[in-house]
C-alpha cells in the first residue's frame, strides 16, 4: 500500500479559514497583518481624509459637461444638470489634492525617526483619490485602507503599493483609521462619510479616544446644510461644548494652518523636532 495522503494543516485549510468557525482568526488577521506592515514601513501616525467617493476632478467633470451639451434631448438635459453639479462639487477634489500636498511637503521637512503624519484614506475614488494624489505629487507616502464592497471601491493608482490594504470587516478598517490618526479632515460626503464622522465624534465625546486629535470639517456651508447642528443643541441632544470637538474650515490654507499649529503645539518640541510619542489609545 502507498503512503496515505497527509491531511491539510489547519492554517492552510482554506475551507476552514473561510468558515464561520474561523471568523475570529480572520478578524485578528485584519489587525496583525496591517500592524506588521505599518511597523515594517515605520508608519508612526497619520492624517486621515474622509469624503465622498463620487466627487470627481475638475478635468473629468468638464469633460462630462461638454459631452452632455451635445445631447439635445430630455435625457441629455438631465445629464447636463448632473454634470454641472459634479463640476460644482469638483472644487472639493481639487482642494483635497492641494491640502494633502501641502501637508505632505510640510511633514517631509520634519526631523525624527519614522514616517510621521502620513496621508491615509479609504483607498478608493473621489476625495480618497484626491488625498492620495496630493501626497503622490509631493513625493510622499500615502495609505489606502480599501474595503470590499459591491461598487465604487477600488484601490486608486496613487496609493503606495506597500501601503495598500484590502479589508473585509468595516470595524477593523475603522480601527486602523483611528488608531494611528493625529488629525481627521472630513470633506463633503454621504452616508459613509457621515458614518465615519459621527463615530469619531462619539469616541472623542465619550473619552474613548483621549489623544490630541484635530478634527476638521471642511466647508461649513455644506455641512450646516446637511446637518442642523443648531437644532441638535436646541433639542438638548448635544451641548454647545460638543461643538468644540471639531473646527469648521473653508479654505485649504485655513485647514493647513489649524492642523500644523495643532501638531506644533502637541507633537513637536521647542526646537521643532518631533516628540517620539505615538499618543495612541
* Order of neighbouring strands in the sheet with most strands: 4-3-2-1-5-6-7
The number of helical runs is: 10
**What helical percentage do the residues reach?**
40-55%
Strand portion: 5-15%
Sheet with the most strands, sense and barrel status: 7 strands, parallel
Give a brief outline of the structure.
The protein is of the alpha/beta class. It has helices spanning 14-17, 23-40, 58-69, 74-108, 127-137, 170-179, 191-205, 220-226, 229-234, 252-267; strands at residues 46-50, 118-121, 142-147, 164-167, 181-186, 214-218, 247-249.
Description:
The protein is α/β, with parallel strands linked by helices. The chain is built from ten helices and seven strands. It has a seven-stranded parallel beta sheet, sandwiched between helices. Strand 5 (181-186), helix 7 (191-205) and strand 6 (214-218) form a beta-alpha-beta unit. The longest helix has 35 residues, at 74-108.
Keywords:
10 helices; 12% strand; globular; 281 residues
Describe how the helices and strands are arranged.
Layout: H1 14-17, H2 23-40, E1 46-50, H3 58-69, H4 74-108, E2 118-121, H5 127-137, E3 142-147, E4 164-167, H6 170-179, E5 181-186, H7 191-205, E6 214-218, H8 220-226, H9 229-234, E7 247-249, H10 252-267
Parallel strand pairs: 1-2, 1-5, 2-3, 3-4, 5-6, 6-7
